[in-house]
Specification:
The chain has 132 residues and is an all-alpha fold. The chain has helices spanning 2-15, 25-41, 48-54, 59-70, 74-92, 97-103, 109-120, 124-130.
C-alpha cells in the first residue's frame, strides 16, 4: 500500500529534480488522501466525484490539484491503478478473466479486456500466459 505513495514521491522527485520550492502542505495532503482513498477503494465503483466528496472539495479543483502533483489526471490514475491490480491478480491467481474484471469493478469482461489491451498492449489472457 505504501508502495504507491513511494512511487509517486519518486515520480515527483524525477519531474522536479533541482527545483527548490515549498509545496503547500495542505495541498499535498489532499493528494495523499486521494491516493489512500483510491488504494483502499479501487475495487468499489468509485468516481472522481466520490473522492472529491470524501475530501470535501470541488471535483474540478481536485482534478487540477491531483494533476499538478502527479502529472496525470485522477481518472487516469484510477484506471491505471485498477489495471495494475488486475495484472497482479492475473499473475498470482487462477481467477478467470471475468472474475478479475469484476474484482477491479468492470461488470463487462469484454470492456475490461478492451481497456486492458489499450493500456498493456496485450489481452488479459495473453498477459497471464506470458507470466506463467
Amino acid at each position: 500500500m505504501n508502495g504507491i505513495m513511494y512511487e509517486y514521491l519518486f515520480l515527483l522527485a524525477r519531474k522536479f529534480p533541482n527545483t527548490h520550492f515549498l509545496v503547500d502542505e495542505k495541498k499535498s495532503n489532499y493528494v495523499e488522501e486521494a491516493l489512500k482513498y483510491i488504494e483502499g477503494r479501487y475495487c468499489d465503483s468509485i468516481t472522481v466525484q466520490d473522492i472529491a466528496d470524501h475530501l470535501n472539495m470541488n471535483r474540478s479543483y481536485l482534478h487540477r490539484l491531483f494533476k499538478s502533483f502527479t502529472g496525470v489526471s485522477i481518472q487516469n490514475y484510477l484506471l491505471d491503478y485498477r489495471i495494475r491490480q488486475a495484472c497482479i491478480l492475473l499473475q498470482n491467481t487462477s481467477l478467470s478473466v471475468r472474475s478479475v474484471a469484476h474484482t477491479v469493478t468492470y461488470a463487462d469482461p469484454l470492456y475490461f479486456t478492451r481497456i486492458f489491451y489499450q493500456k498493456m498492449g496485450i489481452s488479459p489472457r495473453e498477459y497471464r500466459n506470458k507470466f506463467q
